[in-house]
Amino acid sequence: MLFRLADVHKAYGAQDVLRGVTLQLNPGEHVGLVGRNGAGKTTILRLIAGTETADKGEVDRLRGLRVGVLAQHVDFSGAETLLDAVLHVFERLLELESRMRDLEHAMIESSGDELDRVMHDYSEAQHAYEHEGGFSYHARAESVLLGLGFSREDFTKRAESLSGGEKNRLGLARLLLLEPDILLLDEPTNHLDVDAVEWLEEYLAAYKSAYLIISHDRFFLDHTVNRVLDLEFGKIESYKGNYSDYQIEKEERREMRQRAYEQQQEMIARTEDFIRRNLAGQKTKQAKSRRNFLGRLERLENLSEVDTTNFKLRPTTRTGDQVLVIEDLAIGFPGKRLASGINLLLRRGERLGIIGGNGTGKTTLLRTILGEHQPLDGEIRWGAGVNIGYYDQRLLSVDDRNIVIDELRTVAASSVTDGELRGFLGRFLFSGDDVFKPVSALSGGEKGRLALAKLIYSRVNVLILDEPTNHLDIDSREALEDGLNAFGGTIITVSHDRYFLDRIATQILHFGDQSVEFFDGGYTEYHDDQLRLKQARQADEAVAQKVERATRKAQSVKSNPAKKSKQKSPTASEIEAAIAEAEAEQHRLAELLSTDEVARDKEQLFALTEQYQSIDEKLQDLYAQWEVALHEEGRSLAKGS
Questions:
Q1: Which of residues 524, 542, 567 is at a domain's end?
Q2: What total of structural domains would you count in the chain?
Q3: Rounded distance between C-alpha atoms, residue 264 and residue 259, angstroms
């Protein structure tokens, strides 16, 4: 057990957030924590980290537990570079490096017994350095930074000069490299593009220690967790499997509970009928006993009456068959072209999902087709009968001077009653007096829900959505998807939410660094197609490298006839044998480096260190050759079959 919460209660003022939460997390578990915004998910993370205390109940942690928390706002100061800020995670290795350099200088100036002592200390330091990953930590740090979307050019930037999103990514990199006993990650994908999120998925899927993730990214949860904790109404329920497994099991539990409710209602009705018929008769005692039983009975909840967000779209007028035609479009700003060569034909009822890295031009495309930006080149033609509704992630469509209900009234007919408006806003989680709040007092998430409410309430036939799920919790996202799937018009949406795209998009437009690519199909189809292309390219590159090495070897033999050989390329099993031999030699060298005899011999110590590093480089090359050989043998088998 890493930690355990037992019957934990927590309130803020009059609001009860946690009402008897019980959960336990064990070493190596990969867990997702889901629930509506404001349900108390972040509170649970704070209780585990020890930054909050429970009002009631027990919070037990393993003694000496190392907890790594991803802060929502990370800051850096001083003159350190981005790379230095990450390398500081390896403080112990940096200290060992410094000590080894000092000892190397001392070797030059020492002799006799003093030299023996220095050599012994150097051997111990080097052994500790190797054991703790000293030969690989720098490469690991660079790999994590590159995976999270930084470039090598970014490594020399001052950390304090980074944007807020970049600082958060840098904080995530430091946390991953620290490798604590448990990671507590609150929305770790918030500042990552799709490529970085996919890298993080692979990294976490192979992560050996435990983590607990809060995320609204269902695709991400599907690929990173093997258990889901559902926080609802102040209590936790645990589900085995990933997010998709959780959805199936939750629906099954819901159906079972609804059946139990209905059976209880039938029993209550029979009992009440018995009480009415017998309270004044011969069976008065039995009737009173059953009445007492009903008084003590814990009533089950009618789940069919539980309010769920319902984004029901109003009927729309039809557009022409061709909704949008784009020909050879170039977008950007004077002196800065973001993308060019964009060609697209969007027909009535189609749903286009736009994806790509940050700054590649996705939002600029939306603003260009809306007429807010002038195209740098090309042509844009809207079809007949088009009536556009635009959801802007800047939330410019809501007026801070209004109250919530009056903001919705701006797109409503004059005959619509307050009751209808309040009922519709209730579907967007604006209940009671919330509808009279000033728009200026709303949070970002609340403004996002209000902007979507306005858009969906208005009568449009083309929806243009810029990151519509950014401010919504999972329940609201799923309800929005249901509503959009019932929409009879055309949709163009920019989104990083791959689960949302999987449910909505029928075509994908991908913005790369230098190109824009159209794909006729949903996100998963596009992702699988790109994965196949990537694997094919990697295989071709590996074969090309192998051919190049063979060509160089042949040329070398040709230029030196004495070295001619008729040996063919080694098989995968032969390379495996070479790998085993090299690993054994590396292990032998590591043991020699730790002996007192070598520690007292400066020249031997340096020579063995060089041999160790040479063997390490040879192993990396053998691993690459092994992958190529496996690929080649697989292709040969496929041809033979």
A1: 524
A2: 3
A3: 8
